[in-house]
Amino acid sequence: MRKLAFVLLAGVSFGAVGVANAADLPRHMPRKAPPARVYAPVPFTWSGFYVGANAGWGWTSGDGTVTAAGATGPISGSGNGFLGGVQAGYNWQMGALVVGLETDFQGSAIRNDVNFSTAGVTGTGTEKNPWFGTIRGRLGYAQDRWLFYVTGGGVYGKNTLDGTLSTT
Q1: Which residues have CB under 8 Å from 38's CB, separation 6+?
Q2: Which of 87, 80, 100, 81 minimizes the C-alpha distance to 54?
Q3: With left for phi above 0 and alpha for psi between -120 and 50, is residue 138 left, alpha or beta?
Q4: What stretches of the chain show up as alpha helix (H) in DSSP?
């Protein structure tokens, strides 16, 4: 009798047990994972618009000759100061050939002291170049992330020389 009760109790217990499912897993697992997507790398190009800023320190030093009233004498000058500005441009890449256009505008605090003397005329002064800019074209050859180029164009700006002349 005990054996019969044990068998009945075990049968009822095992019959009441079902399969447990996790809430975040699918009921039936797929046999194979879907293939991974393959993305081709985007090729590097020099084409496009760019903009930037720059800052630095400049210095000058020079000497030469000056002619005044038919006489020639030495002239010299030197100076330094802060300069900085912005630049922008656009490049077009066609195969390995790169063609571009760039412009920049710079502000300058460089100040040069100038001195000269010739045949009875002496001069001292201060030369300043408060702003300048360039417009340039570019022609280049691209090798992946390297660009070999030549550039040329024009410059514009303001340059002043204030000083005194004295004669003997």
Answers
A1: none
A2: 87
A3: beta
A4: 2-16
| 105 or 28: which leads in pLDDT | 105
Question: At which residue do the structure tokens 């879907």 appear?
Answer: 34
Distance of CA 129 to the CA centre of its chain: 25
At residue 13 the predicted structure's pLDDT band, cuts being 50, 70 and 90, is low
Sign of the alpha-carbon dihedral angle for 21, 27, 29, 35: negative
Give the count of beta carbons closer than 10 Å to the beta carbon of residue 82: 12
Query: How large a percentage of the chain has pLDDT more than 90?
Result: 43
pTM of the model: 0.65
Cα–Cα dist 98/116, whole Å: 47
- Cα 161 to the chain's mean position, in Å? 34
Among 85, 91, 86, 87, which Cα is nearest to 49's? Answer: 91
